[in-house]
Amino acid sequence: MRILLVEDNEKLSGLLCGELQKAGFNIEPTFCADEALSALKTASYDLMILDLGLPDQDGMEVLNEVRAEKNAVPILILTARDSLDQKIKGLNAGADDYLTKPFAMEEVVARVHALLRRPAQAHSTTLSLENVIYDSHSRQTEVGGQIVKLTKRETSLLEILLRSTGRVVPKEDIEMQIYGYGEDGSANSIEVLVHRLKKKLQMAQAWIEIHTLRGIGYMLVGAGHEKRIE
Ligand code: CA
């Protein structure tokens, strides 16, 4: 298990490294946002421990950038800011857990273990359902072992739906994640996008189906059973 540590306080960094190494983790210390972001571009980690007060950038900016790049690495935030507001902001921005300084070393180790035990699908870079496998790092989709060519937006849509398999994803959520605030994605364009993705999945003989719940949203379900007995 490989952990990326982002903590500018050298003493604390040393203590954390020692403790986590003792617990059997492979830990890589970085001391500023810049270093951490370039480490994330060159290697993949099972977990990131992120301090919010960094010398070059706010840790929240690092968090936003990591999630904007669709990197699903679990993130444990370390910070002296103990206000509820900061915690909510961090969790909303995609952090997985929060630890307020000062903390006991045992607690860090326990939180790290807990985060790594969470169901893989929520964090994993590989999402799968029936005969569909999607890799969020390479953003490649395979159906029955064959690569399926999807556009950037079709890929994003599939990823959003795969992360919420069996649950309804509101149309507005999809719009916001695909088009963001600035861009103009009309409701109609989501419908067109869903239609195109459905068609491509069908052509590739994917055992998954996108259900449309009029006026509500979309839901991805496995349909392997019916497909196989056809
Ligand atoms: Ca700091």
Report on this model:
With 230 residues, the protein is an alpha/beta fold. It is built from ten helices and twelve strands. The strands form three sheets. It has a five-stranded parallel beta sheet with strand order 2-1-3-4-5, with helices on both faces. The longest helix is centred in the last third of the chain and has 17 residues. The N and C termini lie far apart (43 Å). The model has no long low-confidence stretch (mean pLDDT 86). It binds calcium ion. The site of calcium ion has 5 residues, from loops.
Shape label: elongated
Task: Report the radius of gyration as a whole number of Å.
Answer: 20 Å
The N- and C-terminal alpha carbons lie at a distance of 43 Å
User: What structural category do the secondary elements indicate?
Assistant: alpha/beta
Instruction: Kindly report the average pLDDT value.
Output: 86
What is the strand arrangement across the widest sheet? 2-1-3-4-5
- In helices, the fraction of residues equals 40-55%
Unreliable segments of 5+ consecutive residues:
none
The total of beta strands comes to 12
Sheet of most strands: 5 strands, parallel
Secondary-structure element string: EHEHEHEHEHHEEEEHEHHEEH
Bound molecules: calcium ion
Strand content: 15-25%
Give the number of helices: 10
